[in-house]
Amino acid sequence: MLGYITYFQVKKSQEVIRSPYNARQNSNEKQITRGKILDKNGNVLAKTDTASDGTQTRDYPYGNVFAHVVGYSAQGKSGIESLENTELMNSDENFLIKLKNQLQDKKNVGNTVITTLDADLQQAAYQALGDNRGAVVVMDPKTGKILAMVSKPDFDPNTVVADWDTLSSSGDSVLLNRATQGQYAPGSTFKVVTTLEYMRENPDYASYSYNCRGSIERDGIRIHCYNGHVHGQVDLQDSLAYSCNASFSNIGLSLDPSKFKNTAEDVLFDSKLPSDLPYSKSSFTLDSSAGNGTKMMTAMGQGETQVTPYHMALITAAIANDGTLMKPYLIDKVTNASGTVMKESKPEEYKELMTADEAGQLKAYMKSVVDYGTASVLSGQSYTAAGKTGTAEYSSDKEKDHSWFIGMSNVEDPELVVSIIIESSDGNAKAVNIAKEIFDSYYNQ
């Protein structure tokens, strides 16, 4: 019993306190005005307005832009509103200020939560995603700070109560944060993981060579390159740059499924993810019983592999940061209403997902994707970029593919990492173009 009580206090108590189903969450509302949520530069993302009659309303100045990541505080709670509910409904003001408020029958003001989010980047990502369904995650790979997180379709947190019946019954899963909870086939973005496994199994990987004729066939299963393009003689770097399906299918046939699974687990598939927000676990199911068709499909990011945009951001961040994933976080600091810092987060290493040499090689290969490959729209800019495009089939209808992009800017000393998905892209809406808009906005400010 003592052991369980200790475990509960250390591990579970905050989870229970933050639960939107915990009726005690609102017990302080009579004494405390809910605190503010700010972006990294002090822009107000959520605040409580008090009318002359004492009625209080939660206000979200940016409307839909931060809907999923900041969340809402009515009809339950979500996002940062849920994550930091304890701080927002707790006042660490000076004792004399609290006493004065009590004597004047005034509410104390809850603590202020300052996030790592950047309102300018968030708006750039939101606008770039446009009317498309999908998600965007932007991170600082050197610190783990989450700078932007967008999910669409979205909603207005200012009108959650009025719109609740529609939102909660929507067939579009409007309330779902697709960035952390949407599960998708990774498409060709997964080729960076396949490349990593090939490098590990073949120390002479630089000598890899394959003659692409536009397709490959094994056991009656034919895999085509995009639009049947014939890439000719390619090495490993070219295979990634051109996103050659035939070459990666060939690579997949040569890999040891057990070792491949171990590498997938190294980059956090089938594993717990470091995340403050609720998330869906990614899955990699390849094993020794897999047939050649499954091996080929898995190597090119199709098959049964499932991943979230957030997870792909973590993998990309590790590549950008010499193989080490910094623990991602959303909350920079907590202050009292007067601005005194009560808590402050510091960057910390989470796990080495790969060696520095492996990360450096993958980064170089991903730069070739921009230099002369499928992401050449990012070449020749005021900044350098590296990345991987992806097209994930999820339907027999060839016009219903998801468009992916993972990448980084300022390649020699990466500043931003992005992970982007557009659901049901019509071919004109491409995730790499959204990345360009985000990078352009950041570097042209």
List keywords for this structure.
single chain, 445 residues, alpha+beta, Beta-lactamase, 6-stranded mixed sheet, 33% helix, elongated
Your description of this structure?
It is a single chain. By secondary structure, the chain is α+β, with helices and mostly antiparallel strands. It has a domain at 187-331 and 347-443: Beta-lactamase (3-Layer(aba) Sandwich), CATH 3.40.710.10. It is built from 16 helices and 19 strands. It has helices at 2-18, 67-70, 79-83, 85-88, 95-103, 119-129, 160-168, 178-181, 191-201, 236-241, 245-254, 257-266, 292-299, 309-320, 356-371, 431-443; strands at 32-33, 37-38, 44-50, 56-59, 108-109, 112-115, 134-139, 146-152, 210-212, 215-218, 221-224, 232-234, 324-326, 331-335, 341-344, 349-352, 385-393, 401-409, 417-425. Strands 4-3-2-6-14-15 form a 6-stranded mixed sheet, with no helix packed on it. A 5-stranded antiparallel sheet has the order 8-7-19-18-17. A two-stranded parallel ribbon has the order 1-5. A hairpin with a 5-residue loop joins β3 and β4. The radius of gyration is 24 Å and the shape is elongated.
